[in-house]
Amino acid sequence: MAELKTKKTTLSVDDFLNKIEDEQKRKDCFTILKMLKDVTKEEPKMWGSAIIGFGDVHLKYESGRELDWFKTGFSPRKANITLYISGSIESHVELLKKLGKHKTSKGCLYINKLEEVDTKVLKQIMKEGLEKKITK
Is pLDDT of 94 > 90? Predict the structure, then answer.
């Protein structure tokens, strides 16, 4: 079985975020960092070179595959900010209706700018995601 390439590192979260060229995206990411610290009560860690994760979880897939991962996190991508929400994004349907401009995939929430979403709703989605059992 192939080994997971994205692993927890000792790289600096602040150094990584400070290298974001777009000033608004950098500010948004520092705000998201604070929100996730408040929600998780955990310190952020870099996963690979571009993901900021909070907490640790050992996942077991139905296929038998196992891996160590983070409970929740985010990554400032070129096109948007990707938020990795614990559990299934589909379980947040009502909150997502109130969130504002966003896109989703199975476990990710994509936003362009914090000013385009309701940050109180976003924080609630983060909290509820952590309360749900993580399954794959």
Answer: yes
